[in-house]
Amino acid sequence: MNHLENKRIPKLSDAFGAAFDIGAAVNPRTIERAGGLIAHHYNSLTAENEMKFVSLHPAEERYTFEAADRIVAFAREHGKKMRGHTLVWHNQTSDWLFQEADGSTVSREKLFDRLKSHIDTVVSRYKDDIYAWDVVNEVIADEGSELLRPSKWLDIGGPEFIAKAFQFAHEADPNAQLFYNDYNESDPLKRDKIYALVKSLLEQGVPIHGIGLQAHWSLYAPALDEIRAAIEKYASLGLRLQLTELDVSMFRHEDKRTDLTAPSEEMLELQAARYEALFQLLLEYRSHIDAVTFWGAADDYTWLNDFPVRGRKNWPMLFNERHEPKDSFWRVIKQASQV
Ligand code: HXH
Fold first, then answer.
1. How far is the CA of 42 from the centre of ligand 1 (A)?
2. pTM, whole model, 2 decimals?
3. What is the per-residue pLDDT across 22-71, written as a single tens digit (0 to 9) for each?
4. CA 281, chain centre distance (Å)
5. At what angle do helices 188-203 and 224-235 cross, to 10 degrees?
6. Residue 133: partners with Cβ closer than 8 Å, 6 or more residues away
7. pLDDT tens for residues 83-106?
8. How far is the CA of 182 from the centre of ligand 1 (A)?
């Protein structure tokens, strides 16, 4: 869709301006192919992959900032805010970090020295551009009674790696808002574990300012009352909330069908109704929520193509593959106009 057509369509971030920011995850390809759409509708950006450990720091003595810098330059050019994603994670993290040159496991002290050095370098570099960081991503175990997910971070560093990461990030940029970020955040079992972790961080005086609800949701789950209960529980800690990676998959978790090449009318209608209900709820909690970031910009490219089911496309965004607004978009805009 060209820029002239864009001009007649209300800007999503303007529509919600009084309530919260509206963000999109981007990458060098999407800012190339959907730059007009992104510039028009979103007032905040997150690098989808380019600021992850493995992308920025592939070897101990080598940082690769080119792709991340390109995204930051786009954000500057268009006056967008930026969130940083992510400093500590069990995925997309370079193997060298946990190893000595001979392949043996590093000591706890060395792991924390390397973590501090990584966080100092990255957070300082983007100090003027990034106002909030996902400091720690996805450390809670999905199932069972264990609080923390098994990982090299936990094996080598012990549970203190979490507090350390927040301390190092706070030292590198005392002005940055620091977030704990996770998925399945509205599942009651995991919600209570996320709450317990963050509560204990606060009790230890760890500098943490917000909880990121990834919000990888679908037409069918989670239920609105579970989302509401999660928002209320997290907000009761007195922290700021953001939806950091919102999408609405067309498929149930168990559904593995790969035959669809386009969404059915029924799916599109269910999605529009779902987005409408979600934004109605989010607006109800606007005093706690500062930003709602989509994990993509439009349906032509999102991480849900081919994931978690190979060969399956998905249509989780508010804009279709031609970057045109879907019914979902108009129903979300309708909610915004009622505040
Ligand atoms: C997010 N993880 C990450 O924060 C983000 O950095 C990435 O770009 C995309 C999504 C969400 C996630 C977590 C666990 C997970 C899948 C996605 O595990 C599954 C694996 C297979 C099937 C279902 C879940």
1. 23
2. 0.97
3. 999 999 999 999 999 999 999 999 999 999 999 999 999 999 999 999 99
4. 19
5. 10
6. 83, 84, 85, 86, 87, 123, 169, 173, 176, 177, 178, 179
7. 999 999 999 999 999 999 999 999
8. 9
Output the CA–CA distances (angstroms, integers) from residue 324 to 8, 24, 327, in the order listed: 12, 16, 10
**Centre of ligand 1 from the C-alpha of residue 318, in Å:** 20
Q: Which of 245, 295, 302 to mutate to test the pocket of ligand 1 (most atoms within 8 A of CB)?
A: 245
Q: Name the residue of 137, 213, 214 to mutate for ligand 1: max ligand atoms within 8 A of Cβ.
A: 214
- Ligand 1, residues at Cβ distance < 6 Å: 48, 137, 183, 214, 216, 245, 303, 308
Q: Which residue CA neighbors atom 18 of ligand 1 most closely?
A: 308
Residue pLDDT, tens place only, 181-219: 999 999 999 999 999 999 999 999 999 999 999 999 999
